[in-house]
């Protein structure tokens, strides 16, 4: 899942001209990754297209992940 998410982030960055940090890893803070709130929304929408689910709509209580690792864990937790 991590590799898929990073690949999509890199695709979106290339398409949109975003400057993403070169070493995306589990400890990367999302707010320092180069993604802004619009970029994050686009990423979630693209992941929903690719994976066919949006874990953020499936949560009982909303949670905003701070790191890439937390973001990946959310997708892994709600995968079918």
Automatic annotation (TrEMBL):
Signal peptide (residue range): none
Domain Carrier: 20-51
One of the Pfam families matching this protein, by short name: PP-binding
InterPro entries xref list: ACP-like_sf (IPR036736), PP-bd_ACP (IPR009081)
Protein origin, superkingdom: Bacteria
Name by which UniProt lists this protein: Acyl carrier protein
Provenance organism: Chlorobaculum thiosulfatiphilum
């Amino acid at each position: 899942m991590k590799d898929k998410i990073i690949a999509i982030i890199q695709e979106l960055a290339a398409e949109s001209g975003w400057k993403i940090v070169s070493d995306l890893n589990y400890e990367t803070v999302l707010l320092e990754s180069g993604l802004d709130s619009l970029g994050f929304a686009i990423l979630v929408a693209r992941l929903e297209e690719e994976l066919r689910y949006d874990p953020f709509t499936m949560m009982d209580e909303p949670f905003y992940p701070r790191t890439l690792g937390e973001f990946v864990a959310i997708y892994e937790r709600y995968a079918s």
